[in-house]
Amino acid sequence: MSFKALNLSDAVLRGIQAAGYTDPTPIQLRAIPVVLGGGDLIASAQTGTGKTAAFALPILNRLGTHGRTRVLVLEPTRELAAQVETAFRDFARFTDIRPVAIFGGVGYGNQRAELKRGVDIIVATPGRLMDYLKEGTINLRDISILVLDEVDRMLDMGFLPVVKDIVARCPRERQTLFFSATVPPEIAAIASFALRNPARVEIGVARSVTASVNHALYPVAAEQKFDLLLALLAKINFDSVLVFSRTKHGADKIARRLKTANHSVAVLHANRSQNQRIEALAGFKSGKYEVMVATDIAARGIDVAGVSHVINYDVPEKPEDYVHRIGRTGRAQAVGDAFTLVSPENADDIRDIQRFIGQKIPELKLEGFEYKAFAPRPPQTGAPNTRGSLPGQIRHKGSFNRYRNRR
Ligand code: AMP
Fold first, then answer.
1. Does a structural domain hold residue 158?
2. Residue 262 and residue 345: Cα distance in Å, rounded?
3. Last residue of a domain, one of 137, 170, 203
4. How many domains does the chain have?
5. How far is the CA of 53 from the centre of ligand 1 (A)?
6. What does the pLDDT read at residue 379?
7. Are 66 and 163 in the same domain?
8. What is the pLDDT of residue 406?
9. What pLDDT, on the 0 to 100 scale, is given for residue 215?
């Protein structure tokens, strides 16, 4: 089925064409008719499924032309707000509809100027939006469509009370679209507060790992993790690598050491200024930096096309973050590799992740790397991982549990 068959206006269809999309993704196929029909929607879908366009396209269609501020989209992070606003802007290029991004960490001047000019769509993070609501620069009385995006991450970041406050300030007569990869009870509560008779769409359930991603565990002693990271970087043929650290401090440290080893590195975490984050992301996208070291919150949902590899320097704390992290590669059908460095103390986390995604993650050993404390079984040649994209990689037969028991 084509976008044309979805009853979108010519202006929106031209925007889609200019964005280079030819066929709708499954979530677009299912969500667009619901949104066009004016109904509420609750969708579980990961980033990478095309969910931004799934709401942006029919919203633009419903708005038609420039008018009052009728759409509010809430995003958990500045990066997502900027990215979603850019998507709206791209798709709206053949209309006179004006979106604006409202987020903290930057001055108020430009945002105020844009608001004064008159905008149709506000894409905002909750904190900065609240500032404008309190001072009366923004009012929500004409909002007819409210989008709550990445609600599970809003929960993680402690935003739910302010989100609830913002929802309560919107007119009761409105359409509400709700996106969350997972729906734990706190989120179900806010969904029932915000939504009326929602249609439900579940795509690619957040538990699953994109089929186009080849992922593996690399068991290693904690003290050798950095050396293994360097060895992996030297072995793999990568275009752009995202390295995940659990902590901001850890991210800075990894980045410093990678720089010393002559890699061009960007760092993305919440303690960096907005300008530093923009520069990091832009530099990573343009290829100025070949490696970006990031924490989970900072990296959530960011859209960097062509990430060739994801390396989990630290095992993620929450199983769903594993899915989010490795969802950074293999986006929109590109293939990508995702590796996780695991030390014996991570055994429980790995077990939880495997249970969460419902599959065992193959264990590999990097051939030629001098493992000190860790002595995997002798390499089994002839069984490279499915794509065989990693020279010298050997599938390490034997489960992580067995490895743990041996240690
Ligand atoms: P999202 O899940 O919204 O973050 O989108 C993930 C990526 O898929 C983005 O780079 C989009 O530009 C891209 N994308 C979304 N919809 C389509 C489509 N119908 N055809 C091709 N690419 C798409």
1. yes
2. 30
3. 203
4. 2
5. 7
6. 44
7. yes
8. 34
9. 85
Kindly state whether residue 137 falls inside one of the protein's structural domains: yes
Residue-wise pLDDT for 77-96, tens only, equals 999 999 999 999 999 999 99
Amino acid at 76: P
Q: How far apart are CA 3 and CA 5, in angstroms?
A: 5
- Tokens 């990689």 belong to residue: 393
Supply the pLDDT for residue 326: 79
56 in a structural domain: yes
- pLDDT on residue 374: 55
What is the CATH number for 188? 3.40.50.300
53 lines ligand 1 (CB under 6 A): yes
CA distance 111 to 114: 5
Q: Which two tokens stand for residue 137?
A: 């620069």
In a domain, 208, yes or no: no
Question: Tokens standing for 389?
Answer: 């994209």
Would you state the pLDDT for residue 329? 67
Instruction: Give the pLDDT confidence score for residue 71 in this predicted structure.
Output: 98
- Which positions of the chain have pLDDT values less than 50? 332-333, 377-407
Binding site membership of 327 for ligand 1 (Cβ less than 6 Å): no
The tokens describing 151, both together, are 């609600």
Q: So what's the pLDDT on residue 303?
A: 64
Task: Evaluate whether 191 touches 198 at the Cβ level (below 8 Å).
Answer: yes
Plot region of 341 (φ>0 → left; ψ -120 to 50 → alpha; else → beta): beta
- Report the amino acid identity of residue 281: L
Residues 172 and 226 in one domain: no
Domain end among 145, 176, 203: 203
182 and 276 part of one domain: no
Print the domain residue range for 348.
213-405
pLDDT at 323: 82
- With a 6 Å cutoff on the Cβ, whether 83 touches ligand 1 is no
Query: Of the residues 6, 123, 177, 331, which should be mutated to test ligand 1's pocket, given the most ligand atoms within 8 Å of the CB?
Result: 331
